[in-house]
Amino acid sequence: MKKKETEIIKQIDELVQSKKEREDVLRETVKVLKENYEHYNWVGIYLLKGDELVLGPYLGKPSPHTSIRLNKGICGAAASQKKTVNIPDVNSDPRYLACSLETRSEIVVPIMRGKEVFGEIDIDSDKLSAFSNEDQLLLEQVCSILSELF
User: Fold this and answer.
1) Which end of the chain has fewer beta carbons closer than 10 Å to its terminal beta carbon, N or C?
2) What is the pLDDT of residue 27?
3) What is the pLDDT of residues 90-112, one digit of tens each?
4) Total tally of structural domains belonging to the chain
5) Is this prediction's pTM over 0.70?
6) What is the CATH number of the domain that holds 141?
């Protein structure tokens, strides 16, 4: 892992250990990710409530999708399948729920502990194939750390 990613992991771990309110930790996590990666055009966290994902803190253009049912869209797929979904070209995936005409790719990583899903990080990019294996590994580690909040 590169130095930048190591620093981000450390920063988010410190946030989780800080005993701040969960909402504040999630908001600051979104900010850290958005500010450190130019290709992260929209960064948000959805929290699972019953069988719906409810939009929490986010940075980027307003989203019409403040609530997403499980098995709907890429977000619903990631939570239902309990695994990361990385879509290099959203226009080629029929599950994509359009938020912005500029969005070209999306990655969604569940926040889980064991087999239980608590929410997810959703990131959109205006670039095709924007998310590398390094992005996925970083975000999966961030989600693992965030799972301690639940």
Assistant:
1) N
2) 98
3) 999 878 877 777 899 999 999 99
4) 1
5) yes
6) 3.30.450.40
